[in-house]
Amino acid sequence: MTIWIDPPRWPAHQRLWSHLISDQSYDELHTFAGAVGIPRGAFEGDHYDVPQERYDALVSAGAAPTSGKDVARRLRDSGLRFPKRRGEKPLASVRDIVPGLSVGHRMDLIASPLPTPEGQTAAAAVFVVDAAGSLLLVHSVVRDAWGAPAGGREPGEQVREGAVREVWEESGLRLLPDDLVPCGYERLIFDDGVPVGRWPHVRNYVACFVRRLDVVRPRVEPVLDDVDAADWFGYDEVERRCRNEYWWPLLERVVAAVARA
After folding, report:
1. What is the pLDDT of residue 1?
2. Least crowded by CB within 10 Å, which of 98, 152, 174, 200?
3. Quick check: helix, strand or coil at residue 56?
4. What radius of gyration, in Å, describes the C-alpha atoms of the chain?
């Protein structure tokens, strides 16, 4: 067991908080947290925030006490530190998930209202929701899977320009770049720090946007042949088709936010 906890010294919401980490793997951390009843919503990408009143019980359950400085060092040295900006919410981090990549990599999934770094953004995806709450999905020929319209940027193309082009190519739906609202991103990081293939950076971003339409289920049809179907689906059907995808937690969050709007 390599679970560590620092003293409850971090103030927020009228109480003090500790950071609970693993210096071996996120899976080990999630297993420990689940066993002691810490909700997954307390996970912040590389640690769980736990309130002061739980500190003693977590130490008794096997978490090793250490300092805040040592927690930060262990995360850094283990490669498990999860960078994020203020206002962002880490949703997932998975290993070696990208098809066709034979080198070690990590894919982080982050909910965020902030734009991705333009120079490091290699692709974009758009969650298009109609006025009745149905979601546009397209079927990828290569992956034989349903998902939101998405794809890589072309040379000289701005991120939003690439995003609306992909929507048009895969569904025939015309959107305006300024109508896209950032909702999160995927961040691909190579273990050895060497870019590979169509991913030209050590850290590559896939910008994710949402667009809510004011019409119900406009006609859609693929323009190019990299997808062979495009259609509108209600939430239950979207979940059935996409819940096993690593990006599902972001889509689930987006749909919930749109439903509340």
Report:
1. 64
2. 174
3. helix
4. 20
pTM as predicted: 0.84
- What pLDDT is stored for residue 138 in this prediction? 98
Pairwise CA distance, residues 135 & 112, whole Å: 20
d(CA 246, CA 242): 9
How far is Cα 70 from Cα 75, in angstroms, rounded to an integer? 9
Query: pLDDT value at position 193?
Result: 82
How far is 257 from 261, CA to CA, in rounded Å? 6
Can you tell me the distance from the alpha carbon of 164 to that of 178, in angstroms, rounded to the nearest whole number?
A: 10
pLDDT per 10-residue tile (average), the chain, 261 residues: 92 94 93 95 92 96 96 92 90 87 91 95 96 95 94 94 98 97 95 84 94 96 95 94 93 79 61
Q: Would you say the C-alpha torsion 89, 93, 98, 103 has a positive or negative sign?
A: positive
Distance of CA 19 to the CA centre of its chain: 21
Identify the three-state secondary structure at position 178: helix
* E strand residue ranges, the chain: 3-5, 10-12, 15-22, 48-51, 64-65, 89-95, 105-111, 121-129, 135-140, 145-147, 150-152, 181-190, 203-212, 227-233
Name the residue among 150, 99, 145, 142 with its Cα closest to residue 124. 150
pLDDT of residue 261: 61
